[in-house]
Structure prediction request, 169 residues.
Amino acid sequence: MTDTTIEPAHRIRIETDHHVWGLGCRAICSCGWGTHWTQKADDALRTCGDHVNAAANRPDALDQAMTTMLDLQDDLAEVVMWLADNWSADLPSPAVVSCGCDDAAYPRAGVRLLLHCPNVDVLARAAERLGVPVTPSTDSAREVRVYRAVRDFGRVRIDAYSEGPEVAA
Prediction:
């Protein structure tokens, strides 16, 4: 594991000039924003605090991208560990079928693992291992074509499926 130090985007420093020009104090942000000159450092810090709060509440595109990737990294690590601890060789191996899917069935950016089960008995065992029920998927004529067992790990979805007759309860 790597230790990461994250530097704040808005680091504040106090600039003072009481002796030379008699201007007082002002707070300067690392983004370039600064307060007006005041007599006390506390007044400058209080004004600058409003700037930092406003700036911190509006993440930019890079902040959003980094947060999304770190969340996805956490979810992937969880799935890797879960599969290592819980999956067995007698069940189908998952295949990564999409990354960053953005469709109606899975609206968040993420990764989708697909498990094709050769028959409904294998699907029932996979569903039991996933800890989810088997559900029928119907087509436009409301006929059952596929049975699924789906489990989400945050932004990672494991989707086991099988075509065939109804799964025995």
